[in-house]
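INFO  loader      accepted 1 record
INFO  loader      residues=120
INFO  predictor   begin
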Amino acid sequence: MGMFAGSITGGLVFDRFTKFRDLGTAVALATAGLTITCIPRVSKLSVFIALFFIKGYSGTLIQTSMSPSLLVMWVSHPAGIMSFSNTAYGLGSLMAVGLARPFIKKVNYLNNPERPANAS
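INFO  predictor   done
INFO  writer      dumping tokens
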């Protein structure tokens, strides 16, 4: 829901107020960083859901504002930079799994006596 609301809001606001696109991107980056920092420390479900909504909202605001910014910066050849930005996003997603692997607890699900039973 946060991503949907962020894309609608970002499209409407950043297309009308192009002067404030960089400021909006900076605020969205700070908000996304703050929510990502706070999410692991939250113990209440309602606060957790609200933070995930805000994270999705601000993350989509960043994406919505950066595409027109890239198109404005690269007026003569925009296709290359747009392809590169999408490729960089995909490579970052692949690298995130490898960076997080040392911090993920390893569980052997085959020989685990506490494994939940399969009801099917």
